[in-house]
Every structure is written in C-alpha cells, then in structure tokens.
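Forwarding the complex inputs:
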Amino acid sequence: MWTLGLAGVVTIALGALISILSRNDYDGLDAEDRFAFDPTFISFAGMSLGQLAMIVFGVLVVSNEYSTGMIRTSLAAVPQRGTFLFGKVVVATLLALAVGLATSFVTFFVGQAMLGPYQARLGDPGVLRAVIGGGLYMTLIAMFSMGVAAMLRSPMLSLGILMPFFFLISSILGNVSATEKVGRFLPDQAGSKIMQVKTPLDDDTPYGPWGGLAIMVAWVVVALAGGYAVLKKRDA
Amino acid sequence: MIELEGLTKRYGEKVAVNNLTFTVRPGMVTGFLGPNGAGKSTTMRMMLGLDNPSAGAVRIDGKHYAQLRDPLTYIGALLDAKATHGGRSAFNHLLCLAQSNGIPRARVGEVLDTVGLTAVARKKAKGFSLGMGQRLGIAGALLGDPEILMFDEPVNGLDPEGIHWIRNLMKSLAGQGRTVFVSSHLMSEMALTADHLVVIGQGRLLADTSMSDFIRRNSRSYVRLRSPERERLLDVLHRAEVTVTEAGDGVLEVDGTTAEHLGELAASHRIVLHELSPQQPPWRRRSCGSPPSRWSITRTPTTPARRRALPPGGPPAGASPGPRAGSGGRGTERWPRGRCCDRSGPRSARSPRRCGRSASPVSSPSRSGR
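Prediction (whole assembly, two chains):
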C-alpha cells in the first residue's frame, strides 16, 4: 500500500517542481515553442517517476502471494482460478484508480499553481480529458504490471523487467528516430498521449489521445490474458 | 472421502507420483507415510487442485476440488505453515479465508481459541514462530468445520504439548466421523495417531493397510538369550526345532517363540541362563529393500504406558489408558521393521503421565497462548 502513496507523492512533487522550472524557462522560449506550450502536460512530468511506484504496486499485489506461499492457501480457498485472478485484479485496479485519479487532479492543480500566469484551467478544451486520462494512465500501468507479474511470478524478475522497460527502453526507443515509430506503440508512450492537450508541432503520431489509450488498454488485456493463461496452466 | 485414481505427476523425466490409487475413508485417521521426497506433499497439492496431475484424478466426495462450492467447508488443509501473507494479522488472515468461503466471522474467533492463538490474534503472522504458524495453519484447516481434514507434517515445529494436542485433535476429529488424512515421515508418529496407513516411496504405493496389520507384518519380535553353556543350549534348542540366530558376543536370538517357553526349556535341561529377555525391537536399523532405501526414521522414545494408550486397531478418541488386552506380555507386541529402518533411541524421557493421558482434544494447551 505504501507504493500507492509513493506514486501519488512523487508524481505531485515532481510535477510541481517541473512546473516551476518551466515557468522560469517560459520567458526564454521562442514564439513557436510558446505556441506548443502545454501547461497540463508539463504538470504531469512527475508521472514518469510516479508510474514506477505504480508498477511496484501492481507487481507486489500479485507476486507477493507467490513469494510468501500464500497463493496455495488462496487457491485452496478459491480453486476457480479465473475468479481468483479477476477478483484480485478488480480490487487492486479500483484502488489504483482511486489513487491515480486523486494524484492526477492534485498534480494538475499544484502544477498549475506553480506555473502562475501560464496556467491552464480545468475548463479549457481537452484539459479535463487529460487530467482524468492521467488517472487512467496510472491505473492501466498498475494493471499491466499485475498481468506481467502473474506471468513471471517472481517480484524480482517482474520489477527487473518492467522498471528498465518503462524507465529506459521505452524512452530510448522513442527518441531514436529509427525506432521512434515502434516506440510509439509501447504502452506507456501510447497511453501518455492522453495527458497531452496540445500536440507537439513536429508530431506525426498516427493516433489521437483516446487511440493511444486504446493501444495501452490492448497491452493491458494481453498482459492479463497471459497472466491468466499461466495461472490456469501452471502448478501453484 | 477422498478417492485417488491412478494419480501421476511427472516433472519432465522425473516421476514424482506414480500411479497412486487409494481411498481415504471417513471415521478414522489415515496416515500417509513416506520418506522425504517420496511425493507426499505433491500428492496432497494435487488433492487440493493446486498442482495439475499428469494423469489420473482425485475426487473429493465424488467431485473434483475445483467443482466444490466453498471448498473450505468440505475440506480443510494444512499444507505449508508459512503460506500466509506476512503483513496480515492472524485474525485477518483467517477472516479473508472465511469471507471467501461464506464462513461467518464468529468462526474465526472460535478456531483461534481452539488452536490457542487468541492472545496473538492481532499480531502480524510474519512474527510467528514455526509452531505458531503451524497452529495458524491448523486453524485455517478447521475454519470451515469441514468433513475432511488434511495435515501435511502437522507436528513439525510444535512443542511436546502441541504435539500431544494435535494427536488428540486428529483422533477426536476422526471420532466425530470425519475423514482425517495426515502425512508424516515418522513412523513412530503414525503409530500413535493413525488407524490406517498408506505408505509411499519414490512416488509408488507400497502399502495401504490398517495400522495394526502393518505393524504385525513389518515387525519382528525375538528373545535374547545368553548362557555360559552355549553349546548345550544350542543343542537343546535345535532338538526343540527352534531357530536360533547367533548375534555375536555369545548372544543368541530366537524367533517365533516366547520367553516363557525358552525359560522352561532351559530349566528342564538344567542350563544356566545369564539372560532371557523378550525384545520387541522398535525399528531396528536395517538396510531396506528396494524403493525406500534411504529411508531412515528417527524414533521418538516409546514407553509401555504410551503404547497402552493406543492399542492396535485404533481406539476411539479418549480411550482410557489401561493395560493392554492380550497376554504374552511384550513378546506379542510387535513393531514394524524391515521396510523401514530406525535406531532405537533412549527409552522413556517422556513421562507416562503425559503419554497415557487423554486430554480433551479441543482444549488447547495452556502454554500455547504465548
């Protein structure tokens, strides 16, 4: 549970910090960049670190059962493995959603306060969508991690794969022009699109904010389906 | 009732459980005996549907485990004492299990009281000792008041009081007409609790028989003789068609007759005897035959008083300790040997009072609350 708290705190704090920095930078920007300036997205900059805590939450929720051996007790109590996994994911998802949304809104307001004169308002076009999207994004990250952890079972292995993946590989792929087009379809890059209000100038992404979220949902579905298949087939 | 039919589990090339077919019946304690790695736990996991059998099937009251609705109310199992979420308190751990199976909340307090964990009910399970964890696991098994109970090595980590308590608990549960299935690698433990015995080694079924039968078939009793007139004694014994084994140091071992008979025989020939002692060798060390070749069993001290508390054939729980029926003294009392090996340990060390006592099985030991 501490991971959820951490996710919130890190996201808000870092969002606020980046917002302050951006505000100080704003004067130095040229006209073109000022046009593309997206106060909402900037306040969500902390999400890149906050999502790591969400990953930890998602992984631990599932893999903790395996590392303690509780899984055998649990499955003895609920032998219907589909029901078991579904129930677990639903509960954890609702928790993650609550925390994700709260974090997203608090981050937005704190971030905007820091941005001072350049702030966006919740009523501005696309802003509400982006803020709610931020919450959904964090929830989906947690769900994706649960699916991966259900497949891998070991918390070490799951974190060892997910952490570098979201923190390094995804952004490397996204920034190298040759792999940019592939990187775009990774869950975090696609999903984070929902938090943008203004599209960057040189953007040629073939999907919109909701399209991006849909791509992420697809990733989550695949991960959970994989987790279910493994749980169903393998010995506990 | 648990029915196993051709149950097999393979891990790659290795066959952990090989074509097991047996039935665990209600109303008695069925012991599941085998050395470490014989496949006991694997079999039990398959019974609970945790592991998928490579072949064969397990049916619980005619159904597969996964088809049971609220399975904890049919079958309660203690598999792994440490299989708890360490951050949860004992109470919450049991509450989670209860809620998942529609068991009323009040039952949690009851079972905690039964196993003597009430005092630490709000403590986190990760701080529990092995014995306390074991008790918590037993509480989980009892939670749904099930007709079938399964315990995997329940005495592990329990103190003597706790061991005594769990033995009586199992007997009283069986006495209530429930099915009790308990695994152990200790024959001595089985001899005290089980009425029926299923023995496996390297995944194969070695025996499926009543405890008294098993003991009769696998034990050997003999009489030890020492005499300064050894040659004359041997002559006399040969003429009486008694089989004698020389055990070295002038000791003779005689099978298949009583000490009384031998004593009278020697007296009628006026042979001086320095020793005439009936032996019921509990678990003599001997290299075993084929499958369980590495099977060695540590014997816990056995006293006559304790044996009286459990005559072969299985007493109802709470049978009063009394002299064993049947005469012949110790000569007729046989202990398994042969298939399994053991070393006789020091006798006694355990007070007869405790051993013979049959406490109320559900009352928890007073010291357990710590």
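DSSP finds eleven helices and no strands in chain A.
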